[in-house]
């Protein structure tokens, strides 16, 4: 988990991850790094008061973590705010997994969307083809050619 955090450019260096993560901004910055559209960092402020730390964590749960299929329990939030050792590491490990899953699902959805758009484009181009071109595309025998030629003549 520490290596993963070190790869991210955070607004403050992490000297003591337990203390530095207690107000939730670090977690918001991590999510922002991987999924920028989910986080508005201006909603989270560095805080020393317990009430502001709790507010940040509740906002993270409601506005961000819910969207990636994660919720930090009230017990965990209380322990993180009180800087209980190893709690934030456990939460960060879960976050890492949830972000990875979210990105994989998002990439799969993007791929499906691109394929769908390509099919629509192909269908549009195919529907613009003349009847003779459409019929000529799947000719397989001289008899079929004769039948299709007569069908084209009837259409004219």
Structure description:
This protein has 156 residues and is an all-alpha fold. Helix content is 66%, strand content 0%. The chain is built from eight helices and no strands. The radius of gyration is 28 Å and the shape is rod-shaped. It starts with a helix and ends with a helix.
Based on CA inertia axes, which overall geometry fits? rod-shaped
Radius of gyration: 28 Å
Topology order in helix (H) and strand (E) letters? HHHHHHHH
How far apart lie the N and C ends? 71 Å
How many strand units? 0
What structural class do you assign from the helix and strand content?
mainly alpha
Q: Figure out the total of helices.
A: 8
Mean pLDDT across the residues is 83
Stretches where pLDDT is under 50 for at least 5 consecutive residues are: none
Binned strand content: under 5%
Main pleated-sheet profile: none
Task: Give the helix proportion (percent range).
Answer: 55-70%
Short synopsis of the structure:
The chain has 156 residues and is mostly helical. Helices cover 66% and strands 0% of the residues.
Strand and helix layout:
Blueprint: H1 2-6, H2 17-20, H3 25-34, H4 50-64, H5 74-81, H6 87-127, H7 131-136, H8 142-155
Key phrases:
about 0% strand, about 160 residues, rod-shaped
């Amino acid at each position: 988990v520490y290596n993963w955090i070190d790869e991210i450019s955070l607004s403050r260096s992490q000297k003591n991850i337990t203390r530095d993560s207690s107000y939730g901004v670090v977690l918001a910055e991590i999510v922002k790094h991987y999924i920028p559209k989910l986080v508005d960092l201006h909603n989270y402020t560095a805080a020393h008061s317990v009430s502001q730390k709790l507010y940040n964590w509740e906002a993270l749960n409601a506005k961000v973590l819910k969207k990636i299929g994660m919720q930090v329990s009230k017990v965990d939030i209380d322990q993180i705010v009180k800087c209980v050792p190893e709690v934030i590491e456990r939460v960060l490990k879960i976050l890492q997994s949830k972000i990875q899953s979210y990105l994989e699902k998002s990439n799969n959805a993007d791929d499906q969307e691109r394929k769908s758009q390509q099919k629509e484009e192909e269908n549009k181009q195919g529907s613009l083809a003349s009847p003779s071109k459409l019929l000529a595309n799947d000719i397989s025998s001289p008899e079929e050619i004769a039948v299709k030629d007569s069908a084209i003549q009837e259409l004219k």
